[in-house]
């Protein structure tokens, strides 16, 4: 299940429709990036500015939800951003809804590594283990 406003947001992003995209956000909207606090902002104006930049940089960007869970007023979605010419992004976005508006989002998104990189924690293997 997905809140209708979240589906409208995804459709607007994939259509590159800034007006429809911006219309999904409440005036008191807040966006936070817990792992990158300097990226946080408030209000639908910065949302529009952000997506104007993204659409200019990645004119063929598409997003999809690959998994999700819903509570009374929150949508937890695993998102995949396909950015031709650049690294894809994957991660979780927690979207809080009030009525038919998005009032809060928390982003846990990262660029997908295009090659194997050493694991940042000592003693942890980078390769995926397969069950036997």
From TrEMBL:
**Which protein is depicted?**
SnoaL-like domain-containing protein
- Species for this entry: Paractinoplanes abujensis
Which superkingdom does the taxonomy of this entry point to? Answer: Bacteria
Q: Name one Pfam family in it.
A: SnoaL_2
**Domain SnoaL-like residue range list:** 6-104
